[in-house]
Design a protein that fits this description.
The complex is a heterodimer of chains A (about 625) and B (about 140).
Chain A lengths: L5 H6 L3 H17 L2 H7 L2 H4 L6 E3 H52 L3 E4 L6 E4 L10 H37 L17 H11 L2 H8 L5 H8 L4 H10 L1 H4 L7 H17 L5 H16 L9 E3 L2 E3 L1 H29 L2 E2 L5 E2 L1 E7 L5 E6 L7 E6 L19 H15 L5 E7 L23 H20 L6 E7 L1 H12 L6 E5 L19 E4 L14 H9 L5 H6 L12 E2 L2 E2 L9 E2 L9 H4 L9 H10 L8
Parallel strand pairs in A: 10-11, 10-12, 12-13, 13-14, 14-17
Antiparallel strand pairs in A: 2-3, 4-5, 6-7, 8-9, 9-11, 15-16
Helix pairs in contact in A: 2-5, 3-5, 5-6, 7-10, 9-16, 10-12, 12-14, 13-14, 15-21, 16-17
Chain B lengths: L4 E3 L1 H32 L10 H40 L8 E3 L10 H8 L25
Antiparallel strand pairs in B: 1-2
Helix pairs in contact in B: 1-2, 2-3
Classes of the chains: A alpha/beta (about 625), B mainly alpha (about 140).
Amino acid sequence: MSDLTWEAFLDTDFGCLEDVAAEWSTYQKNALEVEQSVIDDHDILKNADAADFEGASADETRAYFKRTVDVFIDDLNYALRIQAELLLGAETFRDKQLALEDLLSQAGSQLTATGGPGEERFEMTVLSGSDNYSEFDVERLEEQAAALSEEFRTLMKEVREYDDEFAALLRAIDDDAPTLSPLLSDPNYDQKTADWLLDLHGDMLEKIESGEATPEEINDWWNKFGDDDQELIANEFPEMVGPLDGIPTEHRDIANRVLLQNEIDSFPPNLDGQIADLEALLASMDEGTYTGPGEIPYDGTTMDREALEAHLAGLYEQRDDYNALVSLQDRIDEPHMFDSGESVEYYLLGIDSAEDGRAIVAVGNPDTADNVNVYVPGTGADLGSVGGGGEWGHGDIGRAEKSVEDAMAVAPGESTAAIMWLDYDAPDNVIPFVDSGAESQASSESYAQAAASDLSSFTDGLRASDQGGSANLTMTGHSYGSTTIGVAARDEGLDVDNMIFVGSPGVGVESAEDLGIGAENVWASRNEEDVIEWAAEEATNGAAAAVATSGAGPLVAGAAGGLAYWLTPDEDMIHGTDPYAEEFGGNTFTSEATRDSAMGNHSAYWDDGNASRKNMAYIITGETGRVT
Amino acid sequence: MSNVLKIDPDVVEATASALKTVAEEAHSAGTAIVELTSNDLQPIDPGHYAFRQGLAVATAFWARRISGLAVRITDGAEFMETNAAMARAADADAEADFVELENAVSANEYTKQDYYAATGTTPPADTTVGDESAMPVNGESVVV
């Protein structure tokens, strides 16, 4: 608490406060030259491609100095605050000082100021009863003294309060000051620097962690960091950055490639050896050559035969997962080369090997492309199949590649990126095996409902990170993937320009208008031999017979069993009105049955020579007038 | 994994030296404004005015920040000198100014010991000198 006396206050010359404030002003102006003297004056620090200092360590040095300088320039705001507080202090004190001088002037010679802090008052200079003063004069002086004393105390109270307030403001000047950036010689510099960078944005991190941050907000926040810092954070916090919608594609790719490598590294290095050992052990038991105890020593423990077989099955699953991840990594490691000789980079926008596995792979950079196509695969899609192969023979990344290639062919002057979006748990089957007790997963809308929020957010993220801000954005769904898109549009909204549904079992709505982008922007196709057509037929027997003769592989057995999926009448498919039907109200386009079987034709839409490819390319590139 | 650094040791060392000078000048300027604040405000008695104690805290904070800046600039300059010294050691007989260092020190691996080892510099007895953490903390500073 200030115990400033009125005498000391009256005697103080506050001009020195203004002088010092002026010195701080000059100091700041000079200090602002730090960027010039630390970076701009030195070619090897100013130019990222300086030949005299080139390489990762040189880049880190430049980033370090930039960070250091940026922090200091921000810090100069504290110097500015000191200067501003000094000026305000001088002005405020001087105003109060003038008020005090005025008060003393009013008191004149007949009243005398006296009293310590809180007891300031005016006393009469002359004694009452003096010959020169009447009783009336004394009474008047007493009233004046009382009134001025009240003002006096109030004024000095205000002065002391301001002194305290001024002191508190100056003491609090560093309350919101961030910690200084790590030293380059600090151990674990990268991690410390990334931690420090994120600590500067604690409020936003909380918002992100709580799921309240929109992709647009995330993009705005991310763009506040410099390029080097963005790369550093993506490398050091891949779990946060990798799945975050709104993060630009290049940085999301960095994070997800780190995650992919981490997942690959998490597998035991001798998986094949373990499997071979176990297979040999079990084979020796089958051949009767194993003569050991009933409990078989293996892998540091003992197991009976049943446990060994279960363990081997687990190892097989691990190997499948490992192979899927390595296959994906190999595939996206180098740019994709088209027959035309042109090439595009892959970007990994999401990866997770848990359960069936999830992945988001972009062919070309959607942030810079004129046209973007998001392809959502359907039933049977999993991490093992996105690269090609698998029971369903999806090759879902291949379909994204083809859509880019086709778009380049029909719109050679434009850039197109395509994204294979498998960030959801797609149904594993259409029809369960006989007597399996399982339900048809693809007849359930729950998989699409579970994906809706993520797909909607991903789309918003694409819009947020679109550098041109005007990409023609198409979402293409195949089979159950079309249901996923439609349900997301219905439940969450999808900010896309066009939707394409091929081989669709219904998209969760009754009409194209219900998708929220205008019926004129909704397109569907189904070739005449696509097995999915039977989802709209009445005759159970006919459907069963057709499937049974389709060569559909594992589905055949299921087709002979419960066919709830196929029992819907006419245009009412299992997931709503057939989007290929006139009643749906959208557009349709031609596609051909290029394969021999009904099941095969369900996956024929990306076959070479199929009219569907060119038609989809027209839609994706905005050339809808050329669609047939 | 190799960390290739293409470097002209002469240029890098000259830059590092200039940066150290910048650090010293920044530190001097920061110290000067703090001292000036103390000296020029003598007419305002700290025994009477509470804000003088607050100002002492604020200027002590600034002194720490400016010291932190100087320490960081010097630290970065030493990192540059370390790589320059390693480049000279790796290619001592090269006539060309330009050296391609195959195993440069990365920022993540670098410590002060690398600097002492590469440059032959002797570590100071008191390593907290010039470190902003050694400066007065909030509320413990003297009135300026």
